[in-house]
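Cross-posting from the chemistry board since nobody answered there.

I work mostly on the small-molecule side, so proteins are not my area. We synthesized flavin-adenine dinucleotide and want a rough idea of how it might sit in this target. Sequence and SMILES are below. Is it possible to get a predicted 3D structure of the two together?
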Amino acid sequence: MTPMQTCRIGDEICLPDSSLPRVVVIGGGFAGISLVKKLKNKPVQVVVLDKNNFHQFQPLLYQVATSGIEPDSIVFPLRKLFNGYKNVFFRMAIVNEIQSESNTIVTDIGTVEYDHLVIATGSTTNFFGLQDVQQHSVGMKTIQEALDIRSLILQNFEKAVVTCDEAERNALTNFAIVGGGPAGVETAGAMAEFKKYILPKDYPELDASMMSIYLIEAEDELLNAMSDKSSENALKFLNKLGVDVRLNTSVQSYDGLNIKTDKTVLLQAKTMIWTAGVKGNVPTGINKENIARGNRILVDDYCSIKGYKNIYALGDIAAMVSDHYPSGHPMVAQVAIQQGKQLANNILLQLQGKGRKRFSYKDKGSLATIGKRKAVADIGKLRFGGYIAWLLWSVVHLLSISGFRNKLLVGLNWAWSYFTYDKGNRLIIRKFRI
Ligand SMILES: Cc1cc2nc3c(=O)[nH]c(=O)nc-3n(C[C@H](O)[C@H](O)[C@H](O)COP(=O)(O)OP(=O)(O)OC[C@H]3O[C@@H](n4cnc5c(N)ncnc54)[C@H](O)[C@@H]3O)c2cc1C
């Protein structure tokens, strides 16, 4: 039987009547969905709010951006994900404000009351106040941005074939990637493969050697969250692929053509992909004293926010500081997933009047791939790179994607590309203009 829907007061969003405590979750990312999975058919009413109607698998955004896989193979509809979850209700909404005095959140489609509120809003690109860079470059945090990058890259090649101006052609075929973390390294590797395998076939009129890929990193090494050995291996693999890696170099300005760094005017490029930093997506209404470095919300070992008895934060948005992680736990999917599970268990324990358990992160290791057949891996005390690391990377990512259909689509695309050296999605579906 379909449950009765009522709006309790004023502009409250319609939700089914329930006498169960209501847990509202803002964000259907890794943290939000791992929490909701644990609360499936438990004695709570769960309301999930997200500005998108899908969950996105951010680790493979770079493959969409570089025409490797289709966009809809790494996003998954939230409503489909919650099929069979009788106590879970999804509403597509942008959360604008939390009014903790009245246990209410204000969204673009109305208000929602909560008994427990979970903030899992993740993070957004940090341009560190560089307004011109923000205006002219493209971040890579969402599927929409990945599609923008794909269009921009392909549009610039289309322009490069028709211009007779050599300087302009150079700028159109120069690609700057800023940030030497996993996203930057993986994008640079994929772009290098594009140059090697796709450019000569698709654009025979262009001299492929003209295309330059720059990877610009402010620190003195790539992948600085990984071991020295993996950082060195990543640099070695990228150099071999022909990527021009500039370490100890910070971008200071970009006007859509000239990239100025702390060294000198480095180069001219019509494409800049910015992966140099992220900051928390904090909704309005959380006390300023609870905001830590990187615009993240300070939480205790239970994901609780100080000063609020029923509001929690987890995943990228949460800064859970410990002796081992003085700047907060790393902003990676495993932290978000493990915190989601733990918080769900704690909410259920609390409802039974039992004590909560502290969060303890189990680091399963780090992986980053650098083009086909090469990756680096730090697993426990093991540090290795090359083909085995790449196989491991491929299996781990394939298993982590939501939905069997998506796994199949990505697997087929990878197999196709592995054997044919081709990328199947070189489409400008909608034009992009910065
Ligand atoms: C390009 C890239 C590559 C990455 N690669 C890796 C990797 O290889 N391995 C790894 O472990 N991690 C990787 N990460 C990091 C990983 O994706 C994040 O740590 C993880 O997504 C954090 O999960 P989360 O649930 O906290 O946030 P998210 O997954 O970002 O989810 C946040 C959700 O909140 C929603 N939301 C935000 N604000 C609002 C609002 N106001 N109203 C309604 N909804 C809102 C968003 O739409 C989104 O669905 C990568 C990230 C990027 C960007």
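Reply from a structural biologist on the board:
Welcome over. Reading the output above for you: The longest helix spans residues 182-202. Residues 26-32, 49-52, 58-59, 61-62, 94-95, 120-122, 140-141, 182-183, 281, 283, 315-317, 331-334, 336 surround flavin-adenine dinucleotide (CB under 6 Å). Happy to explain the token format if needed.
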